[in-house]
Amino acid sequence: MSDYRIKGATGDWEVVVGLEVHAQVVSDAKLFSGAATAFGAEPNTQVSLVDAAMPGMLPVPNCECIRQAVRTGMALDAVINRWSRFDRKNYFYADLPQGYQISQLYHPLVGPGEVEILLDEKDENSVKQIGIERIHVEQDAGKLMHDQHPTMSYVDLNRSGVALMEIVSRPDMSSPAEAGAYLRKLRAILRYVGSCDGNMEEGSMRADVNVSVRRPGGELGTRTETKNVNSVRFVMAVIEHEARRQVDLIEEGGEVAQETRLYDPDKNVTRTLRSKEDAHDYRYFPDPDLLPLELDEAFIEECRASLPELPDDKRKRFEGLGITPYNASVLTAEVETARWFDALLDAGAEARQAANWVVAELFGALNRLGKTIVDAPVSPQQAAELLGLVADGTLSGSLAKQVFEIMLDTGDDAGKIVDERGLKQTSDTGEIDAKIDEILAANADKVEQYKAGKEALFGFFVGQTMKAMAGKANPQMVNERLRAKLN
Protein backbone atom coordinates (compact mmCIF):
# COMPACT_ATOMS: atom_id res chain seq x y z
CA MET A 1 0.00 0.00 0.00
CA SER A 2 1.25 3.49 -0.90
CA ASP A 3 2.21 5.82 1.95
CA TYR A 4 0.66 8.77 0.05
CA ARG A 5 -1.80 10.58 2.34
CA ILE A 6 -3.97 13.67 2.24
CA LYS A 7 -3.50 15.58 5.52
CA GLY A 8 -6.93 16.69 6.66
CA ALA A 9 -7.95 18.81 9.65
CA THR A 10 -9.29 15.65 11.35
CA GLY A 11 -6.52 13.25 10.35
CA ASP A 12 -5.07 11.38 7.38
CA TRP A 13 -6.99 10.16 4.32
CA GLU A 14 -6.14 7.61 1.64
CA VAL A 15 -6.85 8.09 -2.06
CA VAL A 16 -8.35 5.32 -4.20
CA VAL A 17 -7.94 5.69 -7.96
CA GLY A 18 -9.17 3.78 -11.00
CA LEU A 19 -8.65 4.81 -14.63
CA GLU A 20 -10.78 4.17 -17.72
CA VAL A 21 -8.46 4.75 -20.66
CA HIS A 22 -9.94 5.33 -24.13
CA ALA A 23 -7.35 4.32 -26.72
CA GLN A 24 -8.00 4.90 -30.43
CA VAL A 25 -7.27 1.72 -32.37
CA VAL A 26 -4.67 2.02 -35.14
CA SER A 27 -6.65 1.22 -38.28
CA ASP A 28 -7.11 2.84 -41.69
CA ALA A 29 -10.89 2.53 -41.36
CA LYS A 30 -13.51 3.03 -38.64
CA LEU A 31 -15.03 0.31 -36.47
CA PHE A 32 -18.17 -0.26 -38.55
CA SER A 33 -17.49 1.58 -41.82
CA GLY A 34 -14.78 2.07 -44.43
CA ALA A 35 -14.35 5.82 -43.73
CA ALA A 36 -10.80 7.06 -43.12
CA THR A 37 -9.42 7.87 -39.65
CA ALA A 38 -6.49 10.22 -40.42
CA PHE A 39 -5.92 12.97 -37.84
CA GLY A 40 -6.27 16.63 -38.87
CA ALA A 41 -8.57 16.24 -41.88
CA GLU A 42 -11.01 19.03 -42.79
CA PRO A 43 -14.26 18.75 -40.77
CA ASN A 44 -16.81 16.23 -42.07
CA THR A 45 -14.57 14.92 -44.88
CA GLN A 46 -14.19 11.42 -43.35
CA VAL A 47 -17.83 10.49 -42.82
CA SER A 48 -19.60 7.55 -44.47
CA LEU A 49 -23.36 7.07 -44.67
CA VAL A 50 -23.03 4.60 -41.76
CA ASP A 51 -21.21 7.19 -39.58
CA ALA A 52 -23.89 9.77 -40.36
CA ALA A 53 -26.63 7.24 -39.41
CA MET A 54 -28.49 7.53 -42.68
CA PRO A 55 -31.66 5.38 -42.84
CA GLY A 56 -31.10 1.74 -43.72
CA MET A 57 -27.31 1.83 -43.19
CA LEU A 58 -26.00 -1.27 -41.40
CA PRO A 59 -22.70 -1.58 -39.45
CA VAL A 60 -20.11 -4.17 -40.50
CA PRO A 61 -17.32 -4.93 -37.97
CA ASN A 62 -13.76 -4.06 -39.04
CA CYS A 63 -11.74 -7.24 -38.40
CA GLU A 64 -8.48 -5.26 -37.96
CA CYS A 65 -9.94 -3.32 -35.01
CA ILE A 66 -10.98 -6.58 -33.32
CA ARG A 67 -7.52 -8.06 -33.99
CA GLN A 68 -5.76 -5.06 -32.46
CA ALA A 69 -7.93 -5.21 -29.31
CA VAL A 70 -7.22 -8.96 -28.91
CA ARG A 71 -3.46 -8.37 -29.32
CA THR A 72 -3.66 -5.61 -26.69
CA GLY A 73 -5.44 -7.96 -24.29
CA MET A 74 -2.73 -10.58 -24.80
CA ALA A 75 -0.01 -7.99 -24.10
CA LEU A 76 -1.77 -7.22 -20.79
CA ASP A 77 -1.87 -10.95 -19.95
CA ALA A 78 -5.66 -10.72 -19.99
CA VAL A 79 -8.42 -13.26 -20.63
CA ILE A 80 -9.54 -13.24 -24.28
CA ASN A 81 -13.25 -14.01 -24.48
CA ARG A 82 -13.92 -16.31 -27.43
CA TRP A 83 -17.54 -15.07 -27.46
CA SER A 84 -18.44 -11.41 -27.09
CA ARG A 85 -21.30 -9.14 -28.10
CA PHE A 86 -22.07 -5.53 -29.01
CA ASP A 87 -24.67 -3.53 -27.08
CA ARG A 88 -26.40 -0.24 -27.74
CA LYS A 89 -25.83 2.49 -25.16
CA ASN A 90 -28.71 4.91 -25.64
CA TYR A 91 -28.33 8.64 -25.06
CA PHE A 92 -29.01 11.78 -27.06
CA TYR A 93 -26.19 14.17 -27.88
CA ALA A 94 -25.75 16.43 -30.89
CA ASP A 95 -22.52 14.74 -32.02
CA LEU A 96 -24.03 11.22 -31.84
CA PRO A 97 -26.05 10.87 -35.06
CA GLN A 98 -27.52 7.42 -34.24
CA GLY A 99 -28.86 8.48 -30.84
CA TYR A 100 -26.89 5.57 -29.36
CA GLN A 101 -23.30 4.35 -29.13
CA ILE A 102 -22.36 0.79 -30.08
CA SER A 103 -20.31 -0.55 -27.15
CA GLN A 104 -19.88 -3.76 -25.09
CA LEU A 105 -21.33 -3.79 -21.58
CA TYR A 106 -22.33 -7.35 -20.74
CA HIS A 107 -19.90 -9.44 -22.79
CA PRO A 108 -16.64 -7.56 -23.51
CA LEU A 109 -13.98 -8.83 -25.92
CA VAL A 110 -11.26 -8.93 -23.22
CA GLY A 111 -11.58 -9.90 -19.56
CA PRO A 112 -9.28 -9.50 -16.52
CA GLY A 113 -5.55 -8.81 -16.90
CA GLU A 114 -2.84 -6.73 -15.22
CA VAL A 115 -0.10 -4.16 -15.72
CA GLU A 116 3.15 -4.29 -13.73
CA ILE A 117 4.54 -0.89 -12.73
CA LEU A 118 7.75 0.20 -11.00
CA LEU A 119 7.12 2.72 -8.23
CA ASP A 120 10.82 3.68 -8.36
CA GLU A 121 12.64 3.25 -11.70
CA LYS A 122 15.97 2.82 -9.89
CA ASP A 123 14.61 0.00 -7.68
CA GLU A 124 13.59 -3.14 -9.57
CA ASN A 125 11.97 -4.51 -6.41
CA SER A 126 9.45 -1.63 -6.19
CA VAL A 127 6.94 -3.58 -8.28
CA LYS A 128 3.17 -3.25 -8.06
CA GLN A 129 0.49 -5.03 -10.09
CA ILE A 130 -2.45 -2.91 -11.27
CA GLY A 131 -5.47 -5.01 -12.20
CA ILE A 132 -7.29 -4.62 -15.51
CA GLU A 133 -11.00 -5.37 -15.21
CA ARG A 134 -11.86 -5.51 -18.91
CA ILE A 135 -11.24 -4.09 -22.37
CA HIS A 136 -14.26 -3.45 -24.54
CA VAL A 137 -14.43 -2.13 -28.08
CA GLU A 138 -16.73 0.77 -28.90
CA GLN A 139 -17.25 3.56 -31.42
CA ASP A 140 -16.31 7.17 -30.70
CA ALA A 141 -18.75 10.07 -30.97
CA GLY A 142 -18.22 13.14 -33.14
CA LYS A 143 -17.02 16.52 -31.88
CA LEU A 144 -18.89 19.75 -31.11
CA MET A 145 -17.07 22.96 -32.13
CA HIS A 146 -18.16 25.96 -30.07
CA ASP A 147 -15.64 28.52 -31.32
CA GLN A 148 -16.57 28.70 -35.03
CA HIS A 149 -19.66 30.93 -34.79
CA PRO A 150 -20.90 33.57 -32.30
CA THR A 151 -24.33 31.98 -31.72
CA MET A 152 -24.15 28.39 -33.02
CA SER A 153 -22.17 25.22 -32.33
CA TYR A 154 -20.93 23.20 -35.30
CA VAL A 155 -20.65 19.41 -35.46
CA ASP A 156 -17.64 17.58 -36.95
CA LEU A 157 -18.37 13.88 -37.52
CA ASN A 158 -14.85 12.86 -38.60
CA ARG A 159 -14.36 11.00 -35.29
CA SER A 160 -17.86 9.50 -35.33
CA GLY A 161 -17.46 5.72 -35.54
CA VAL A 162 -13.69 5.66 -34.91
CA ALA A 163 -12.75 2.46 -33.04
CA LEU A 164 -11.83 2.82 -29.36
CA MET A 165 -10.59 0.32 -26.81
CA GLU A 166 -11.82 1.22 -23.34
CA ILE A 167 -9.29 -0.22 -20.91
CA VAL A 168 -10.84 -0.26 -17.43
CA SER A 169 -8.48 -0.65 -14.46
CA ARG A 170 -9.40 -1.89 -11.02
CA PRO A 171 -9.26 0.76 -8.24
CA ASP A 172 -5.74 -0.41 -7.33
CA MET A 173 -3.88 2.93 -7.44
CA SER A 174 -3.43 4.98 -4.29
CA SER A 175 -1.40 8.04 -5.31
CA PRO A 176 -0.95 10.40 -8.27
CA ALA A 177 2.52 8.90 -8.85
CA GLU A 178 1.10 5.36 -9.17
CA ALA A 179 -1.54 6.52 -11.65
CA GLY A 180 1.15 8.33 -13.65
CA ALA A 181 3.36 5.22 -13.70
CA TYR A 182 0.40 3.05 -14.76
CA LEU A 183 -0.64 5.38 -17.58
CA ARG A 184 2.94 5.68 -18.89
CA LYS A 185 3.39 1.90 -18.80
CA LEU A 186 0.02 1.24 -20.46
CA ARG A 187 0.84 3.76 -23.20
CA ALA A 188 4.24 2.10 -23.74
CA ILE A 189 2.64 -1.36 -24.10
CA LEU A 190 0.04 -0.08 -26.59
CA ARG A 191 2.76 1.58 -28.67
CA TYR A 192 4.98 -1.54 -28.61
CA VAL A 193 2.01 -3.64 -29.75
CA GLY A 194 1.13 -1.04 -32.39
CA SER A 195 -2.58 -1.01 -31.45
CA CYS A 196 -2.65 2.71 -30.49
CA ASP A 197 -0.20 5.51 -31.27
CA GLY A 198 -0.59 6.99 -27.76
CA ASN A 199 -0.71 10.61 -28.97
CA MET A 200 -2.60 12.09 -26.04
CA GLU A 201 -2.31 15.62 -27.44
CA GLU A 202 -4.20 14.47 -30.57
CA GLY A 203 -6.91 12.79 -28.49
CA SER A 204 -6.03 9.25 -29.53
CA MET A 205 -5.54 8.32 -25.88
CA ARG A 206 -7.41 9.91 -22.99
CA ALA A 207 -8.41 8.91 -19.48
CA ASP A 208 -11.50 9.15 -17.28
CA VAL A 209 -10.18 9.47 -13.72
CA ASN A 210 -12.18 7.88 -10.89
CA VAL A 211 -11.21 9.23 -7.45
CA SER A 212 -12.51 8.59 -3.93
CA VAL A 213 -11.07 9.08 -0.44
CA ARG A 214 -11.32 7.06 2.77
CA ARG A 215 -9.74 6.73 6.17
CA PRO A 216 -6.64 4.48 5.97
CA GLY A 217 -7.89 0.91 5.56
CA GLY A 218 -11.54 2.01 5.78
CA GLU A 219 -14.57 1.48 3.55
CA LEU A 220 -14.46 2.85 0.00
CA GLY A 221 -15.88 6.36 -0.31
CA THR A 222 -18.15 7.81 -3.02
CA ARG A 223 -16.21 8.33 -6.24
CA THR A 224 -16.28 11.05 -8.85
CA GLU A 225 -15.30 10.60 -12.50
CA THR A 226 -13.34 13.34 -14.26
CA LYS A 227 -13.77 12.91 -18.03
CA ASN A 228 -11.38 13.09 -20.99
CA VAL A 229 -8.08 14.01 -19.33
CA ASN A 230 -5.42 14.11 -22.05
CA SER A 231 -1.98 13.99 -20.43
CA VAL A 232 -0.18 12.05 -17.69
CA ARG A 233 0.60 15.31 -15.89
CA PHE A 234 -3.06 16.37 -15.93
CA VAL A 235 -4.21 12.93 -14.66
CA MET A 236 -1.88 13.33 -11.67
CA ALA A 237 -3.09 16.91 -11.10
CA VAL A 238 -6.76 15.79 -11.21
CA ILE A 239 -6.14 13.14 -8.53
CA GLU A 240 -4.34 15.61 -6.27
CA HIS A 241 -6.98 18.33 -6.65
CA GLU A 242 -10.02 16.04 -6.50
CA ALA A 243 -8.77 14.14 -3.41
CA ARG A 244 -8.12 17.42 -1.58
CA ARG A 245 -11.56 18.77 -2.61
CA GLN A 246 -13.32 15.63 -1.34
CA VAL A 247 -11.44 15.61 1.98
CA ASP A 248 -12.25 19.28 2.60
CA LEU A 249 -15.91 18.70 1.69
CA ILE A 250 -16.29 15.68 4.01
CA GLU A 251 -14.51 17.39 6.90
CA GLU A 252 -16.81 20.39 6.56
CA GLY A 253 -19.81 18.08 7.03
CA GLY A 254 -20.75 17.72 3.36
CA GLU A 255 -21.12 14.62 1.21
CA VAL A 256 -19.33 13.72 -2.02
CA ALA A 257 -21.83 13.45 -4.88
CA GLN A 258 -21.35 10.62 -7.38
CA GLU A 259 -20.98 12.77 -10.48
CA THR A 260 -19.09 13.38 -13.69
CA ARG A 261 -16.65 16.29 -13.60
CA LEU A 262 -14.42 18.19 -16.05
CA TYR A 263 -10.84 19.34 -15.48
CA ASP A 264 -9.78 22.93 -16.23
CA PRO A 265 -5.98 22.81 -16.73
CA ASP A 266 -5.66 26.62 -16.80
CA LYS A 267 -7.09 26.96 -13.27
CA ASN A 268 -6.09 23.44 -12.11
CA VAL A 269 -9.59 22.71 -10.79
CA THR A 270 -12.35 20.21 -11.53
CA ARG A 271 -15.97 21.28 -11.87
CA THR A 272 -19.33 19.52 -12.10
CA LEU A 273 -20.42 18.43 -15.59
CA ARG A 274 -23.45 16.24 -14.81
CA SER A 275 -24.77 13.79 -12.25
CA LYS A 276 -23.32 10.30 -12.71
CA GLU A 277 -25.52 8.00 -14.75
CA ASP A 278 -25.91 4.30 -13.95
CA ALA A 279 -26.05 1.53 -16.55
CA HIS A 280 -29.86 1.38 -16.44
CA ASP A 281 -30.04 5.07 -17.45
CA TYR A 282 -28.55 4.12 -20.81
CA ARG A 283 -31.10 1.32 -21.47
CA TYR A 284 -28.46 -1.07 -22.79
CA PHE A 285 -29.63 -3.91 -25.02
CA PRO A 286 -27.89 -6.22 -27.56
CA ASP A 287 -27.40 -4.49 -30.90
CA PRO A 288 -29.86 -6.17 -33.28
CA ASP A 289 -27.78 -5.26 -36.36
CA LEU A 290 -24.65 -7.12 -35.23
CA LEU A 291 -24.04 -10.82 -34.66
CA PRO A 292 -21.91 -11.87 -31.65
CA LEU A 293 -18.14 -12.08 -32.22
CA GLU A 294 -16.86 -15.65 -32.13
CA LEU A 295 -13.07 -16.07 -32.26
CA ASP A 296 -11.57 -19.33 -33.47
CA GLU A 297 -8.22 -20.77 -32.37
CA ALA A 298 -6.49 -19.94 -35.65
CA PHE A 299 -7.34 -16.23 -35.20
CA ILE A 300 -6.18 -16.30 -31.56
CA GLU A 301 -2.89 -17.96 -32.49
CA GLU A 302 -2.26 -15.51 -35.35
CA CYS A 303 -2.77 -12.62 -32.90
CA ARG A 304 -0.38 -14.17 -30.37
CA ALA A 305 2.30 -14.90 -32.99
CA SER A 306 2.21 -11.27 -34.16
CA LEU A 307 3.12 -9.80 -30.77
CA PRO A 308 6.57 -8.16 -30.49
CA GLU A 309 8.93 -8.36 -27.52
CA LEU A 310 7.14 -6.31 -24.84
CA PRO A 311 8.69 -3.66 -22.52
CA ASP A 312 9.17 -5.90 -19.46
CA ASP A 313 10.74 -8.73 -21.47
CA LYS A 314 13.01 -6.27 -23.28
CA ARG A 315 14.04 -4.65 -19.99
CA LYS A 316 14.95 -8.04 -18.49
CA ARG A 317 16.94 -8.93 -21.62
CA PHE A 318 18.86 -5.66 -21.41
CA GLU A 319 19.59 -6.24 -17.70
CA GLY A 320 20.87 -9.72 -18.63
CA LEU A 321 23.45 -8.00 -20.87
CA GLY A 322 24.88 -6.14 -17.86
CA ILE A 323 22.89 -2.93 -18.25
CA THR A 324 21.82 -1.31 -14.97
CA PRO A 325 18.11 -1.61 -14.04
CA TYR A 326 17.70 2.17 -14.28
CA ASN A 327 19.26 2.41 -17.75
CA ALA A 328 17.27 -0.62 -18.93
CA SER A 329 14.08 1.06 -17.69
CA VAL A 330 14.91 4.32 -19.49
CA LEU A 331 15.84 2.53 -22.73
CA THR A 332 12.57 0.56 -22.84
CA ALA A 333 10.17 3.35 -21.80
CA GLU A 334 9.53 4.40 -25.42
CA VAL A 335 9.32 1.92 -28.28
CA GLU A 336 11.38 4.12 -30.65
CA THR A 337 14.23 4.32 -28.11
CA ALA A 338 14.20 0.55 -27.59
CA ARG A 339 14.31 -0.09 -31.34
CA TRP A 340 17.15 2.42 -31.83
CA PHE A 341 19.14 0.81 -29.02
CA ASP A 342 18.55 -2.71 -30.39
CA ALA A 343 19.88 -1.47 -33.76
CA LEU A 344 22.95 -0.10 -31.93
CA LEU A 345 23.58 -3.53 -30.36
CA ASP A 346 23.04 -5.24 -33.74
CA ALA A 347 25.71 -2.92 -35.19
CA GLY A 348 28.23 -4.39 -32.73
CA ALA A 349 28.24 -1.99 -29.75
CA GLU A 350 29.01 -3.42 -26.29
CA ALA A 351 25.78 -3.30 -24.27
CA ARG A 352 26.84 -1.66 -21.00
CA GLN A 353 29.06 1.00 -22.64
CA ALA A 354 26.34 1.67 -25.25
CA ALA A 355 23.59 2.07 -22.61
CA ASN A 356 25.65 4.56 -20.58
CA TRP A 357 26.46 6.54 -23.75
CA VAL A 358 22.84 6.68 -24.99
CA VAL A 359 21.39 7.75 -21.63
CA ALA A 360 24.08 10.35 -20.87
CA GLU A 361 25.51 11.63 -24.19
CA LEU A 362 22.87 10.98 -26.84
CA PHE A 363 19.84 11.96 -24.74
CA GLY A 364 21.68 15.08 -23.55
CA ALA A 365 22.45 16.10 -27.15
CA LEU A 366 18.88 15.41 -28.36
CA ASN A 367 17.47 17.41 -25.47
CA ARG A 368 19.77 20.32 -26.35
CA LEU A 369 18.80 20.15 -30.03
CA GLY A 370 15.08 19.77 -29.32
CA LYS A 371 14.97 16.49 -31.26
CA THR A 372 13.62 13.01 -30.55
CA ILE A 373 15.43 9.73 -31.17
CA VAL A 374 13.35 9.28 -34.33
CA ASP A 375 15.06 12.30 -35.95
CA ALA A 376 18.46 11.84 -34.26
CA PRO A 377 21.27 13.27 -36.48
CA VAL A 378 23.39 10.18 -35.71
CA SER A 379 22.34 6.67 -36.79
CA PRO A 380 22.81 3.53 -34.62
CA GLN A 381 25.50 2.34 -37.05
CA GLN A 382 27.42 5.64 -36.75
CA ALA A 383 27.14 5.50 -32.95
CA ALA A 384 28.46 1.91 -32.93
CA GLU A 385 31.52 3.02 -34.93
CA LEU A 386 32.19 5.87 -32.48
CA LEU A 387 31.91 3.55 -29.46
CA GLY A 388 34.16 1.01 -31.20
CA LEU A 389 36.88 3.68 -31.60
CA VAL A 390 36.70 4.29 -27.82
CA ALA A 391 36.78 0.57 -27.06
CA ASP A 392 39.90 -0.09 -29.20
CA GLY A 393 41.80 2.88 -27.75
CA THR A 394 41.70 5.06 -30.88
CA LEU A 395 39.73 7.72 -28.96
CA SER A 396 39.78 8.77 -25.32
CA GLY A 397 36.54 9.74 -23.58
CA SER A 398 37.16 13.46 -24.09
CA LEU A 399 38.15 13.01 -27.76
CA ALA A 400 35.01 10.91 -28.31
CA LYS A 401 32.91 13.85 -27.01
CA GLN A 402 34.63 16.16 -29.53
CA VAL A 403 34.06 13.72 -32.39
CA PHE A 404 30.39 13.26 -31.38
CA GLU A 405 29.78 17.02 -31.48
CA ILE A 406 31.26 17.17 -35.00
CA MET A 407 29.07 14.21 -36.03
CA LEU A 408 25.98 16.07 -34.79
CA ASP A 409 26.95 19.15 -36.83
CA THR A 410 28.08 17.46 -40.05
CA GLY A 411 26.46 14.02 -40.15
CA ASP A 412 29.91 12.56 -40.97
CA ASP A 413 31.05 9.15 -39.71
CA ALA A 414 33.38 9.01 -36.70
CA GLY A 415 36.25 7.32 -38.60
CA LYS A 416 36.22 9.99 -41.31
CA ILE A 417 36.31 12.80 -38.72
CA VAL A 418 39.21 11.17 -36.82
CA ASP A 419 41.24 10.75 -40.01
CA GLU A 420 40.55 14.20 -41.46
CA ARG A 421 41.13 16.13 -38.22
CA GLY A 422 43.91 14.06 -36.72
CA LEU A 423 42.00 13.36 -33.53
CA LYS A 424 43.51 9.95 -32.82
CA GLN A 425 44.55 9.24 -29.25
CA THR A 426 48.28 8.64 -28.90
CA SER A 427 49.76 5.86 -26.79
CA ASP A 428 53.32 6.64 -27.94
CA THR A 429 55.29 6.45 -24.66
CA GLY A 430 58.21 8.42 -26.11
CA GLU A 431 55.98 11.38 -27.01
CA ILE A 432 54.11 11.21 -23.68
CA ASP A 433 57.38 10.95 -21.69
CA ALA A 434 58.81 13.99 -23.47
CA LYS A 435 55.76 16.13 -22.58
CA ILE A 436 55.78 14.89 -18.97
CA ASP A 437 59.46 15.81 -18.62
CA GLU A 438 58.69 19.32 -19.87
CA ILE A 439 55.77 19.72 -17.42
CA LEU A 440 57.79 18.46 -14.42
CA ALA A 441 60.78 20.69 -15.31
CA ALA A 442 58.54 23.75 -15.59
CA ASN A 443 56.88 22.99 -12.22
CA ALA A 444 59.83 21.92 -10.05
CA ASP A 445 58.30 23.59 -6.96
CA LYS A 446 55.09 21.55 -7.31
CA VAL A 447 57.12 18.37 -7.82
CA GLU A 448 58.80 19.04 -4.45
CA GLN A 449 55.41 19.65 -2.81
CA TYR A 450 54.04 16.42 -4.28
CA LYS A 451 57.05 14.44 -3.01
CA ALA A 452 56.57 16.06 0.40
CA GLY A 453 53.10 14.51 0.62
CA LYS A 454 50.75 16.84 -1.28
CA GLU A 455 49.32 14.03 -3.44
CA ALA A 456 46.39 16.11 -4.68
CA LEU A 457 48.83 17.74 -7.10
CA PHE A 458 48.87 14.54 -9.17
CA GLY A 459 45.66 15.69 -10.87
CA PHE A 460 47.35 18.98 -11.78
CA PHE A 461 50.19 17.14 -13.55
CA VAL A 462 47.70 14.92 -15.45
CA GLY A 463 45.72 17.96 -16.54
CA GLN A 464 48.80 19.85 -17.72
CA THR A 465 50.04 16.83 -19.70
CA MET A 466 46.66 16.30 -21.40
CA LYS A 467 46.49 20.02 -22.21
CA ALA A 468 50.00 19.98 -23.69
CA MET A 469 48.99 17.06 -25.92
CA ALA A 470 45.69 18.71 -26.98
CA GLY A 471 43.69 15.98 -25.23
CA LYS A 472 45.06 13.28 -27.53
CA ALA A 473 47.19 11.38 -25.02
CA ASN A 474 45.93 8.06 -23.68
CA PRO A 475 44.83 9.05 -20.13
CA GLN A 476 45.71 5.65 -18.67
CA MET A 477 49.21 5.86 -20.17
CA VAL A 478 49.65 9.42 -18.86
CA ASN A 479 48.72 8.25 -15.34
CA GLU A 480 51.12 5.31 -15.47
CA ARG A 481 54.09 7.33 -16.85
CA LEU A 482 53.55 10.20 -14.42
CA ARG A 483 53.46 7.89 -11.37
CA ALA A 484 56.63 6.16 -12.55
CA LYS A 485 58.49 9.48 -12.97
CA LEU A 486 57.18 11.12 -9.77
CA ASN A 487 57.89 8.09 -7.60
* Mean of all residue-level pLDDT scores: 92
Distance between the termini: 59 Å
Shape, per Cα inertia axes? elongated
Structural class per helix/strand content?
Answer: alpha+beta
Work out the helix count: 15
What's the total number of strands?
16
Protein name: Aspartyl/glutamyl-tRNA(Asn/Gln) amidotransferase subunit B
Subunit structure: Heterotrimer of A, B and C subunits.
Pfam families: GatB_N, GatB_Yqey
GO molecular function: ATP binding; glutaminyl-tRNA synthase (glutamine-hydrolyzing) activity
List keywords for this structure.
487 residues; alpha+beta; Arc Repressor Mutant, subunit A; 3 domains; nine-stranded mixed sheet; three-stranded antiparallel sheet; 16 strands; 19% strand
Structure report:
- Strands 1, 2, 6, 7, 10, 11, 12, 13 and 14 form a nine-stranded mixed beta sheet that branches.
- The chain is α+β, with helices and mostly antiparallel strands and 487 residues long.
- A hairpin with an 8-residue loop joins strand 6 (113-118) and strand 7 (127-139).
- It has helices spanning 63-75, 176-193, 232-251, 297-305, 311-320, 325-332, 335-346, 351-369, 380-391, 397-410, 414-421, 429-442, 444-451, 458-468, 475-486, and strands at residues 6-8, 11-24, 83-84, 87-90, 100-103, 113-118, 127-139, 143-145, 154-156, 163-169, 205-214, 224-229, 259-264, 269-275, 285-286, 293-294.
- The protein is 39% helix and 19% strand.
- Helix 9 (380-391) packs antiparallel against helix 10.
